[in-house]
Structure formats: C-alpha cells, structure tokens
C-alpha cells in the first residue's frame, strides 16, 4: 500500500531544468525541499533557495545520512546523469555497504540499475516517488496532437516503425528513442542520450520528407526514475536534424516548459504527437 505524501521532499538532482521544475512544483504544493546536487551534473547555483549539499555519486552514505537528518522520507530522482564507470565511483563507507545489494544489476542497463537503486532506497527507509506524484503539470496525460501540424501517412508509418524499434531496444534496456525517416532507422538512443542521437541522425538524413523522433518508456520501466523527457532544446535539435515531428508516450513523458516546447515546434513546423504505444492502432507495419 502506498503511503500518503507529506513532509519534506528529498530531491537528488542531476543536470538540466527538470530538477528545478520538480523543486518548484513541490514548493508550490506546500512541501519543504532538500536537494542533493550530484557533483558534475547538477548546478548548485540553481538551488540556493533550498537547503542543499553537493555530493559526488559515490558518496551515497553522506547523501542518505544528510536526508535522514533533515527528516526526509519521500524522494525523487530528477535530471540528466551520465553513468560513470564503476571504478570511478570511489564509494564512501555508506555506499560500500549498499553496493552488494545492487549486485550484478550495476553492470546491466540503466533501467536495471535504477530499479535496483530504487529498491535499495526503499530498504533504507525512503519512499521514492514517481515524477507525476510531484510534478503532474509536466506530464502529458492523454493521447492527442499537441501542435497545429500533424503527421502525414509517411510520418505515421515512420512512427510505427520507430515504436517497433524502441520496443526492441527497450526490452534490452538500451534506450528510449529512435529516429526513422522513410522507413529507414537513422539512429537509436543508447548511452549518449537524445540530443547526441539527434545530432548523429542529422548527418545521416536522406533527401525527401524528413524523419520522426519516437521516444517512449522501455517495456516494464520503473516510473520512479528516468522517464522520457523532452523540452525546447529537444525540439530545436530535432529541427536541426531535419525531422518533421516527435511522437511521445502519453502518461509517460515529461515535457519541460510546455509553452516554450510547443512554441518551438510551431515556429519550426514540427508536430508533437502524444500516443499510447500499446494501442493496436500503432502496431508495427506488416513485413
């Protein structure tokens, strides 16, 4: 049974705008926020309004002790983090105690690792939350077209192809996104992230109608960490890559700064379509 939300919220902050939005949403809901800024990823200057500390990723013991001392039980993980090599972590005493409980999942894909981390946090007495429990206003709730422009038949076929590809790589815990143009898979997302994938796809685009970015959750993904996220920068990167639109998962994608994101799409003539990837209408094309 889920526990009622209340009391101070702990925020483990990586890079980008999402941690700032999460903190602001929690404060707007009347919650105190205590921020652990991950060294090398989050920016301490962005969190001067909140009690915060800066920790390297290997200092899990210090992080959890500080959060406990602040009376934190509810936690959210937000923001971009590039996975370090295991040898570079230099775990403190507290982290060294936790590592054996993560076990072999430390060497699997990102979702496998994050699920193990979430479980360890629960065992340590914390309550990791889903993004929508803290910042529901950033989630796309229902399927539908978010922009004036929409996909034509070629783009629809590319979306279906992209969904098939993302299901396949997601099942192997590799990535959440793919770029497809005229049925050709130009790029799939791996450890480099969406922006780097889009830059690579732009160098591979073909003449004719531009491609689409498909970005959805991995099959069975834990919703408490690393949900698909787009924002204005994603749209601009997609436009620079020559794409015509983005297909994202309804009730599974965070849109940072929706007004600016949609404005960027409209200004560049791109569509943004929220869909249910499990709807039979989006079954992969035959053959």
From TrEMBL:
Residue ranges occupied by any LpxI C-terminal domain in the UniProt entry: 143-272
GO molecular function: hydrolase activity
Enzyme Commission numbers on file: 3.6.1.54
Record carries keyword Hydrolase: yes
Residues annotated as domain LpxI N-terminal: 9-138
Gene3D superfamilies noted in UniProt: 3.40.140.80, 3.40.50.20
Classification via InterPro entries: LpxI (IPR053174), LpxI_C (IPR010415), LpxI_C_sf (IPR043167), LpxI_N (IPR041255)
Keywords: Hydrolase
Membrane-traversing stretches: none
Heme as UniProt keyword: no
Pfam families: LpxI_C, LpxI_N
Protein name, entry field: UDP-2,3-diacylglucosamine diphosphatase LpxI
Annotated gene: lpxI
């Amino acid at each position: 049974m889920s526990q009622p939300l209340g009391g101070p919220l702990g925020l483990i902050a990586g890079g980008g705008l999402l941690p700032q939005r999460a903190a602001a949403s929690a404060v707007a809901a009347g919650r105190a926020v205590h921020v652990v800024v991950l060294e090398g990823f989050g920016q301490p200057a962005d969190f001067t309004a909140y009690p915060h500390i800066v920790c390297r990723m290997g200092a899990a013991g210090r992080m959890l002790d500080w959060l406990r001392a602040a009376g934190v039980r509810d936690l959210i993980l937000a923001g971009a983090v590039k996975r370090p090599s295991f040898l570079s972590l230099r775990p403190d005493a507290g982290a060294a105690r936790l590592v054996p409980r993560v076990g072999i999942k430390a060497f699997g894909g990102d979702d496998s690792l994050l699920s193990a981390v979430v479980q360890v946090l629960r065992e340590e007495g914390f309550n990791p939350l889903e993004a929508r429990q803290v910042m529901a206003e950033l989630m796309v709730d229902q399927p539908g077209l978010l922009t004036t422009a929409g996909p034509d038949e070629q783009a629809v076929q590319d979306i279906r192809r992209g969904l098939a590809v993302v299901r396949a790589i997601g099942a192997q815990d590799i990535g959440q996104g793919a770029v497809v143009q005229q049925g050709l898979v130009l790029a799939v997302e791996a450890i480099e992230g969406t922006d780097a994938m889009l830059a690579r796809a732009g160098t591979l685009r073909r003449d004719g109608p531009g491609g689409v970015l498909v970005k959805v959750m991995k099959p069975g993904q834990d919703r408490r960490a690393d949900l698909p996220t787009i924002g204005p920068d994603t749209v601009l990167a997609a436009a620079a890559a020559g794409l015509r639109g983005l297909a994202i998962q309804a009730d599974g994608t965070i849109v940072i700064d929706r007004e600016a994101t949609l404005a960027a799409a409209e200004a560049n003539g791109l569509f943004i379509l929220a869909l249910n990837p499990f709807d039979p209408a989006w079954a992969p094309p035959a053959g």
